[in-house]
Design a protein that fits this description.
The chain is α+β, with helices and mostly antiparallel strands. It has three domains: about 180 residues, no CATH class; about 60 residues; about 60 residues, no CATH class. Strand 5 and strand 6 form a beta hairpin. The longest helix is centred in the N-terminal third of the chain and has 28 residues. The protein is globular. The two termini are about 30 Å apart.
């Protein structure tokens, strides 16, 4: 899904690039950005209750137990963004709004055909049915602009390949959400505490340290890792070279950035190997696969860690969501699965599968150009 990307681009179109970066992307003078070598461009410290500075313990590179990987081998890792678990909700809203539009429009056409043209009944049907249809169409277009266009009739998900051989980041996404791009790894900068601005206004975030701190604290729950590439020339009005991507699920941040960075700088043997719970599925999922891999991911993991076969919480989770799983699978099939251009050679000459989940052989091969 591209809900975060859509919100950023809407802010950029309405308020301009600078405010979109300052406000929505939180790329400004108050934000510490991490580079590929240095830990951070500001001190990694915090102020304790006594008003003294204390060093913050830096987290280790980790994927935690999040589903984030599409591919993992010695030459590149492939990841995506967040939000796919909300696809069934988006599809349900789509049906709720689209169904009345369809049936009212159909009924209006039927009445106009059956009644004598320009009779009293014909005029009532035209005015009432046409008015309701226009209102429903307006509501549908509003939701299409702000929600549905990020969920349906577009790519199923963005794909990001971090290739340590070419030292490039290959970005695969629809044109309306930024388009495909090949970016230099050396220029990457990471915002590890990004969170959506929610109800805070630009003025509040610009003038209040407490508001900025609260926003960054919320990143542990609903934030993501944001990777930013600044323009080649800051004085360039066209801002050539500038781009940004959101990587990983909700709650991802510095550990994920360190995982990516350590892989790119030191290789696959320098990072913790992926577990069964770190993989995303390539291609479309069935209802049962969606339930197991997305909806019940946390519940099943908790049961495994506590030694339970099936806890009450897992059973309740299944009962509440099983009816919506077919909607999710159907919504997925209103999208297409994107594939990397062959001319990029982002796979280092080794063609990778485009369907399935989990580790893929070979893990090691000699790159071919």
């Amino acid at each position: 899904m591209f809900s975060t990307e859509l919100s950023y681009l809407e802010e950029r179109r309405s308020q301009g690039c600078k405010q979109a970066l300052d406000y929505f992307a939180d790329i400004n003078d108050n934000t510490s950005l991490h580079g590929i070598v240095e830990e951070c461009d500001k001190k990694n410290v915090n102020i304790n209750r006594k008003g003294k500075y204390e060093k913050i313990k830096s987290p280790e590179p980790s994927l935690f137990l999040s589903r984030v990987l599409l591919d993992f081998n010695e030459n590149f890792i492939e990841m995506s963004n967040q939000g796919d678990e909300k696809r069934s909700l988006g599809f349900m809203l789509f049906l709720i709004i689209a169904a009345p539009l369809f049936f009212v429009g159909l009924a209006t056409i039927s009445d106009l055909i059956n009644y004598e043209a320009f009779s009293a009944n014909w005029k009532i049907a035209a005015i009432a049915g046409g008015g309701i249809t226009l209102c429903a169409a307006g509501l549908f277009l509003f939701f299409w602009k702000h929600l549905f266009s990020a969920v349906f009739f577009t790519a199923l998900r963005p794909r990001y390949r971090f290739n340590r051989i070419s030292r490039k980041v290959y970005v695969l996404r629809p044109k309306k959400f930024g388009g495909n791009n090949v970016l230099d790894w050396e220029r990457a900068r990471a915002h590890v505490n990004w969170a959506p601005p929610k109800s805070w206004t630009p003025e509040q975030l610009a003038g209040s340290q407490e508001a900025r701190h609260a926003r960054h604290m919320s990143a542990a729950i609903e934030g993501n890792l944001l990777i930013y590439w600044p323009p080649f020339d800051l004085a360039d009005p066209a801002r050539r070279g500038e781009d940004l991507i959101w990587v990983g699920p909700d709650g991802s941040g510095e550990p994920l950035w360190k995982y990516i960075r350590k892989f790119m700088e030191e290789g696959m043997d320098a990072v913790p190997p992926p577990t069964d719970y770190n993989w995303l599925r390539k291609g479309f999922s069935t209802p049962s696969q969606h339930m197991r891999e997305t909806v019940m991911h946390g519940s099943l993991l908790s049961d495994q860690m506590t030694g339970q076969e099936l806890s009450g919480a897992t059973a309740v989770n299944f009962g509440l969501n099983v009816l919506w799983a077919p909607l999710h699978s159907l919504a997925e099939r209103l999208c297409y699965w994107p594939t990397f251009p062959a001319e990029w050679n982002s796979d280092c000459g080794q063609r990778r599968r485009e369907i399935g989940i989990g580790p893929e052989e070979p893990l090691k091969w000699t790159p071919r150009h």
